[in-house]
Structure of C-factor-like:
Amino acid sequence: MAAQPVTVLITGANRGLGLEMVKQMVEGKCPVKKLFACCRDPNGPKAEALQALAKKHPNVHIIRLDVADLGSIKQCSQQVGAQVGTGGLNLLINNAAYLDKSTLQETTAEGMQTTLNTNLMGPMYMTQEFLPHLRAAVKASKIPGMSTRKAAVVNITSFLGSMQLVKDTFSIFTYIPYRIICAAEELKKDEILFSLLHPGWVRTDMGGEEGEIDAPESVTGMLSVMESLTEKQNAAFLDYKGKTLPW
Ligand code: NDP
């Protein structure tokens, strides 16, 4: 990326696309200054690759975060606040997600609850709790307009949530989707950009081996799209190539 935000936070950063984002954001030509790589179990076996990255790159700060737990989100926000101070947080990437492979018939209250807590309440509480740091970034920034270098929330979502595409996508993916975008209007008045990104069908644990692309291609595309975002794309639903997707 040519121009990077100074401070970035990524949820679900220990594997899959989150881990690849950390990698590309710190190993690129213009690495971010401070990257908060958040995951549920920083000392567990699933965070070994992230720990190795953090050892190599002192600008990667691993923070414990369970996005389905408001207490954990609040704690994380305090830790980040203490580190960024009045400079604030430029870019919050809500990437962590849970996939419950259930059809409507199979869905249980427990599965639905975990899905909603992780995929819906998680990004919502993250946005709420990190708002002071995003506002601080707007205040500290001299950059006009809206951008990910100034202050932004990017939600990694899925084109499976598109109602216009549901006829084509439902037969190949019968699991229950969701989407969140309503926060965009409210954040606009603070000049905080809010957009949704579909990473493509990617060969990660979630995407499976039959996915169409690998994580590096997806993340290279997404980071380049993030770099190009301005107020024109506020509340936009884009894919990793920057193509606008229908709702
Ligand atoms: P993976 O299943 O590979 O990784 C999911 C990540 O989310 C893991 O780091 C996992 O952590 C984390 N996570 C799950 N629950 C929580 C929680 N409660 N708190 C914190 N972290 C949590 O998924 P991908 O990397 O493939 O997906 C990344 C994003 O891209 C998701 O938002 C997904 O919906 C989206 N996406 C992916 C597609 C694909 O083809 N791969 C297609 C469309 C959208 P842990 O190791 O602790 O479980």
